[in-house]
Amino acid sequence: MVRTSALRRELGLPGPAPGDPDPELPTLADALAAAAPLPPARVRRAYLRRLAGDLRPHLPALNLLLDDLRGVTGRAQPERALAQWLASVTGGRATLYSSWDEVVAQQGTPGPARAEQRLVYEGRPVGRLTLEAAPEWLALVPLVAEQARLARLQAAAAGAARRRAGERQFEALLAGDLSGAPGGGPCVLAALRLGGPMPRTGSARERRLQQLDLLCAVGEGQLQGQRLPCLATVRGDKALWLWQGQDSAREAAALHRGLLSATEALFSLGISAPQPGFASVRAALGQAVQALQEVRAPRGLMTFERLDPFQTLLESGALHTLSEQVLGRLRAADDGRLEDTLREYLRRPGSLGALAQALNVHINTLRHRLRRTEEVLGGDLNDPAFVARLYLALHAGQEGAPGAFGDAEAPGAE
Hints:
With 414 residues, the chain is of the alpha+beta class. The chain is built from 15 helices and nine strands. It has helices at residues 4-10, 28-34, 40-55, 59-72, 78-90, 140-174, 202-225, 248-262, 281-293, 309-314, 317-333, 337-347, 352-359, 363-377, 384-395, and strands at 93-97, 103-108, 113-121, 124-133, 187-194, 230-235, 238-244, 267-271, 300-303. A five-stranded mixed sheet has the order 6-7-5-8-9. Strands 2-1-4-3 form a four-stranded antiparallel sheet, covered by helices on one side. A hairpin with a 2-residue loop joins strand 3 and strand 4 (124-133).
């Protein structure tokens, strides 16, 4: 360890006076503080020369250690091999996490102290490394971090190759070619789209595709972490995942959590209903995209099974046109009594006598208003199709509309 006196001699400065403290300088920041206000570049060179001189007797052993560490990333499962290497060297527990904060490799028994190093590549996180061991081993973590980052990038590259194969298999399945499809039970398809329109050209489009590819890898890792066979790819402006599972709601929720942890970007996630097999991939894709289009909350999730088609119908533009037509005729005919009466007629099942009592009008007045409504709108309130059109027109765009017209007994004339 470099001491203050050694650094000052290296810099050509007088050392501490006899009896003065001579503290160790374990980091470059400590050296810069001790040698202020000298130029940082000069202090750095002197500190590293002194540090290398102190380490010179140990360099052969250090090279042996680093060579063995570098050999770890050439193994079949580099992340697991690296965690095992670090745990065996330190006697502690080493853990390697993905960018979405899931454990991808863990070995050893935890010790009393803990160190953590974020793993970053080109400005984006690729994971993190932690070591729980005796305090004197924690300084090893930054040294190992570069190999840990390389192991994570190797895993990502292998995942990208799998996704290219997944893309070819996806296209084959969508074309009806089941020759390479995995056998087995039900499958589910998830589709993710990022917020905002897809850029048409240039670097913005390339960045969007890279972002989708990264999230595709995140989702793939999340599903594989649940031991679910999975195909993943980017298709157009969407990331897609197709997996075989048994509990689609739980599996979809875990996929959603992993994506939320991996990015702060706005996205929508749609999940298909479970399909009997891979022959139904086209239907699954249609369901997932339909669910995706109905996501309302930022960074939200919608499953096809939870869709409310009736509410979607009520919110459609065509129904708003119908609503404006019906309400326009009613409001042009009088001061609003026909509209209010019609709304109560559609809302309250039962006899006209009970409805007249609720409206506090004579039953003949009620009958007159209903006949007048039929004349204005050109229909028959005894015709179910006409009543259904009026119901939709009066509820279009309203929050909390009933889930189905058949929830209550249909209104009828006495």
